[in-house]
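INFO batch 0412 | record 1 of 1 | parsing
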Amino acid sequence: MRPVRTIATLAFAATVGMLTPLAAPAWAAPDPTIRVSPSTVTAGDTVVVSGSVAPAPAGSECASGVTLLSRAFVHTHDFADVPAVYAAVEADGTFTVTTRIPRSKPAGTYTISGRCGGGNLGALANLVVRAAPTATTTPAPAAPSGTAPPATRPPVPAPTDAGQPTQPATPTADHLAGRWIIPGLVALGAGILAALGVWLLYRRQHPAA
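INFO prediction complete | emitting tokens
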């Protein structure tokens, strides 16, 4: 009986040893991770979000891509009213995506999470956003007090007959005639008035009979 019992014990141990590898996985699946670089940015800059998920069976949602969620992202796509960015998953379970933080995003600390296959990844990353600088206009420098503004020169008229020599003005015959006719007429009129006055005076002193 003892040899039979020993053989049965050995056979049972061998069977358990063969079934144990089939019941337990050959490797432990890594925990999902999410990373963001840089972790502190100014609104309007770009960030790189990367991480990894456990390799999933081909054709499943987690094997093709993950959805990253954060209120720091641009609101082009969303999930449950939270801005979302899609990242493709490589064969080894890693993913990487680049996105730009909107310039209008208020300063603060934002959480980045992920989903695939209808559930959360269970990993988080924090992103610190600084407010974008506001554009300012620089006023023109003011002139020192007591300094008069620069004088402006009046425009110099261009000569109309540029390049032509000027000729001296010579008195014409009409000009000379005008200079003597007018005084002559004035003198003649004065003489006529004087003679008329003498004649009237004479008639008054010697009236006709």
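INFO post-check: The mean pLDDT is 77.
INFO record closed
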